[in-house]
Amino acid sequence: MVVRLRLSRFGCKNKPFYRVMAADSRSPRDGKHLEVLGYYNPLPGQDGQKRMGLNFDRVKYWLSVGAQPSEPVQRLLFRSGLLPPPPMTAMGRKGGPRDTRPIDPMTGKFLTPESSKKVDLEPNVDLDEDESTSSA
């Protein structure tokens, strides 16, 4: 039995509310689950922030025994600090080759390599001056 950590939808039409569940991968989205691990409310509250609550001890337990988080749950666990950032690649165009430059998961912008930030500090030497001194 493969256990997945995934979201189960609750709430009304146009007002979603999700519970983070540990469930068998073969069970339906809103079907039978093994344990409720937390909740996620994507609608902004009075302060404009999304609400999320997790039972960290139980999430760590399920991850330690081999449970696989779904992509949305993986993003939630990254935001809470339990998982490293998921690998992200940008699509150049639909069905086309992927851009392999790394992306910052918080901003969604491309990360620049460290080597391009370094400035060449060596002085520029003119070739004409070197040739004139060596021939004289």
Automatic annotation (TrEMBL):
Region (Disordered) location: 79-136
GO molecular-function terms, A-Z: structural constituent of ribosome
GO terms for cellular component: chloroplast; mitochondrion; small ribosomal subunit
Compositionally biased spans, kind Acidic residues: 123-136
Compartment(s) where it occurs, according to its Swiss-Prot or TrEMBL record: Plastid, Chloroplast
Name of one Pfam family that matches: Ribosomal_S16
SUPFAM superfamilies: Ribosomal protein S16 (SSF54565)
GO biological process, one term: mitochondrial translation
InterPro entries, alphabetized: Ribosomal_bS16, Ribosomal_bS16_dom_sf
Keywords of the record: Chloroplast, Plastid, Ribonucleoprotein, Ribosomal protein, Transit peptide
Similarity comment: Belongs to the bacterial ribosomal protein bS16 family.
Identification of the protein by name: OLC1v1037740C3
Naturally occurring in which organism (per UniProt): Oldenlandia corymbosa var. corymbosa
